[in-house]
Structure formats: structure tokens, C-alpha cells
Amino acid sequence: MPQSYTELQQLARDAVIHTLPLYEMARMRAATCPRRDRAGHFAGDGPDSTLRWVNHLIHTRELLGPQHRQVVTPNNDTLYTNAWLDLSREPVVIDVPDFNGRYYVLGLLDAYTNPFGYIGSRTTGTQAGKFLLHGPAWHGAVPEGMHAVACATNAVWMIGRLLVDGEADLPAVHALQDAIALNRIDGSPAAFPFDVSMQPREHLGDARRFAEIVNWMLADNAPSVAEARLMRRFAEVGIGAGLTATATQLDILAGALTDVLKDLAEPQASDMGGGWAMSVDVRESYGTNYLQRALVARNYIGALGVQEAMYIIADRDGDNAPLDGRHAYRLDFALDNLPEVGAFWSLTMYDKGDCMLVPNEIARYSLGDRSPSLARGPDGSLTLHLSAQPPSDAAQQGNWLPAPAGPFYVALRLYVPQPSHLDRTYRYPAIARVREAS
Fold first, then answer.
1. Which of 44, 145, 308, 401 has an alpha carbon 20 to 30 Å from 355's alpha carbon atom?
2. Furthest CA-CA distance within the chain
3. pLDDT tens-digit readout, 415-435
4. N-term to C-term CA, the chain
5. Measuring CA to CA, which residue among 88, 151, 145 is closest to residue 117?
6. Residues whose CB falls within 8 Å of the CB of residue 87, separated by 6 or more in sequence, listed in order
7. CB of 111 within 8 A of CB of 63?
8. Which residues pair with 78 in a beta bridge?
9. Which of the residue ranges 21-35, 69-83, 143-157, 351-365 would you say has the lowest mean pLDDT?
């Protein structure tokens, strides 16, 4: 049925919100999939090809510091082991070694960024295992000794985090990374060249490229049955598997894309008190909350579900004033109000200007329940000190988290958060200013 221009504008807005995660996943895959395998072989005919190796493991070998600037708000607690999987041909078997009680997680995101599955300490334990991941069209027999993991889309991003207890622990974690394998059912390597159809430097903004990439992704990654019913109407604005948007449709999509991106860039309100905010609140699926799904895909892509990890951010003190390292602050955890986690927690410092870790002479970027320098109060409470200059009291310096000499924010990461965090009854202490700018 023909629609008015205003109705088409709203339809285009809905189309962008529903399908933006597909574009962002395709863009991230193009940016992070390796051009070469470990033997140095290009997936295509040279560095300009859009062929990349999929079903291929990518390891980081260093704990991230201020010198690493590829990712904003980086994690300083774990090493990453990632892989982009394509299950359109056949399943992929993930072989993991015995982690011997060490915390790890291999999080699984579908093409719509739903964090639908986990392999690791919380869900499958830390013992060795083989996990067969298969796409929606596969109905074969699962070999004995393998655990089947059904995936809603053929494109899957596996995002692994392996806990590291400082630099001295790196060799042990490297050995665990090297023992993880991606194979076919017959045991042969699963990697193959895949055309990602994008260059890594592409950025969201051009309506034609948005429609091309989204329609290409839809052809191999169909939405759920319920969402598919909603998305059929998007054909009127040029969005759908196999479609090519017309000039008129692209004009409408361009306006919608601009408006949606502007909305997603707006600061998010905090309902947690004390300046704290949680930007990602999802479990296995976003369900019908398509706007939040688009928000996370745009600003926090790769986030795990809250039952695995929660990321609580503060950029203001208890009086709602912006945090600034020229002041001194304290964060007080009472004995009966320490973060409650099944794995570990940490507080990490970031420069507000570039969202990166803060260089400092003692190379301390985070503090948490595994930090050997932390000292408790006589009553078992824990106080953390945040400022650019170290506390004058030497007894407090082990609890000092260095800040930049300007605006900053902190992230409280909770791995395997317990019920008080998940049900929102935990009382997050406010960051209190104790000294004016020096």
C-alpha cells in the first residue's frame, strides 16, 4: 500500500534501527579479520583484496596499556582470543584445553549482536572440551564427546577473554591460547578465505553502502521469525535480502541514517545514582528492544551479557560534578558492600579526552580484588584513591589509582556478577571529592 513521505521516513528510521547491528558486525569483521594466516599467506591476491581468513583464531599477547590505541575503554585484566566464524558451509568445532580453574569465557554473538552463548568457567566449567557450533540450516549428527551449540545466524563473532594475573602470568596464558583450536568435524583446520565485501576503513554514514552491506548480510543471516515479519515492510525503503535501493529510497534512508546516528550519540541517562551508569543491559538476546540493540552495536559492540560481565561507568562524583584528576577523590566500599562477583572485579581509569588508559610512572591502570597492593581498613572496608598526584600518606599509595591531570572516568568491571548486581539491589558507592584542585 502506498505510504506518505512522512510514513516512509518513519519506516526508514525503523529499518535503520533494526539493521544497523548487521552493518556494524560486517564493518567490525572487515576491520579485524586477518588478511594473512599464520604462515603468512594472503586470503586473497594481495593486501587490497576484501578476502579475509574466517574460522581463524586471533590472539592478543599483551595486556593492554596506554600504548595500545585501537580500542576505546580497553580492558586491562584479560588477554583476548577472538575469531570470526562462518557456519554457512559446515559446523566449526572449538577445542578448548583444561584451564585448571582459571577464569575464561568465549562469548558468542550472532549477526544481530545478540550474546546468545558462552563457553567458559561460568557455563561449561574450566575442564577441556569440544564444542560443535552449527548454523540454522544444519541438521547433522553430533559426534560423541562433542557439545552442540546451535547458532541463529551463519555469521558468529567469538570474543574470548582469558584472565591474567600480571605480566609474570603471561606465558601460562599464551600456552592456553595456543591450545585452543578451530577445526572441522573431521579434525582438519576450519579456516578458509571469505569475502567480507568491505575495506577496514569504511565508516557508517553513506546510505548506499549501508543498504548494500545490510542487504548482503540479510541474504545469509535471516532474522528471527518474529522480526522477519516486521522487516518485510522495509522493502518499501530498499532494505531486504537481494534488494537494490532506488535513488528515492536512498534519499529517505540517508535522512533516517543521519537522525538515528545523532540520537545514538546522545549521552545516556543514569538511573544508578552517584554518577554511575550501565550502558549495556542484555542477557542472551535484546528481544524486541531494537533501539538498545542498535545503541550497543554502535557504541559498545562486542559487549557480553550482564550475567557474564557488567560494565558500570562513572564520569561524575557524588555531587554530580565532572571527575577531574586535579582534584582528589575517594571511593569507599564498606565491608558489607564490596562488589559481589563469582570471578573477579576491577576499577579501571580512563582519560575522558581520548577514552584510553592513563600513562603513569607506576604503570598502574586498574585496581581490583586481585591487586596485591591493596590494603584494607581495620574494619575490613576498602578505600580507593583517585587523583593525578599520589596521596601524601604513604600508607594509602597502594590503593591509589592514578588519574590524568584533567577530566577522567572510571569503569567498574564485574565478571560473573552475583544477584545483588543483577537484580539492582547493590548500592554503588558515590565517588567523593576530598581535595580541591592542586
1. 308
2. 74
3. 999 999 999 999 999 999 997
4. 67
5. 151
6. 133, 134, 135, 138, 151, 154, 155, 156
7. no
8. 163
9. 69-83
Q: Do residues 223 and 231 touch, judged by C-beta distance below 8 A?
A: yes
Quick one: which H or E segment has residue 345?
strand 341-351
Distance CA 258, CA 217 (A): 21
Q: What share of the chain is helix, strand, coil (3-state, %, to 5)?
A: 25, 25, 50
Q: Kindly state which CATH superfamily the domain 276-435 is placed in.
A: Domain of unknown function DUF1214, C-terminal domain (2.60.120.600)
Q: What is the DSSP string of 76-104?
A: SSEEEEEEEEE-SSS-EEEEE---TT--E
Question: Cell for 76?
Answer: 586491562
Please name every residue paired with 118 in a beta bridge, in sequence order, or none if there are none. 107
Amino acid, res. 121 = S
What 3-state class would DSSP assign to 159? strand
Q: Decide: helix, strand or coil at residue 419.
A: helix
Tens-digit pLDDT profile for residues 275-333 = 788 878 899 999 999 999 999 998 888 889 999 999 999 989 989 899 999 999 999 99
Cell of 1: 500500500
Q: In what order do the strands lie in the sheet with 58-59?
A: 58-59, 78-86, 155-163, 104-109, 115-120
Do 315 and 275 meet the contact criterion of CB atoms below 8 Å apart? Answer: yes
Residue 72 CA: distances (Å) to CA of 68, 85, 105, 134, 264: 9, 24, 21, 32, 17
Domain 34-195 sits in which CATH superfamily? Domain of unknown function DUF1254 (2.60.40.1610)
Instruction: Report the predicted TM-score, pTM, of the whole model to 2 decimal places.
Output: 0.91
Residues facing residue 414 across a β-bridge = 310, 345
Containing 132, the helix (H) or strand (E) segment is strand 129-134
DSSP secondary structure of 349-379: EEETTTS-BPP-TT---EEETT-TT----TT
- What CATH class does 5-25+198-264 carry? mainly alpha
Domain-wise residue ranges, the chain: 5-25+198-264, 34-195, 276-435
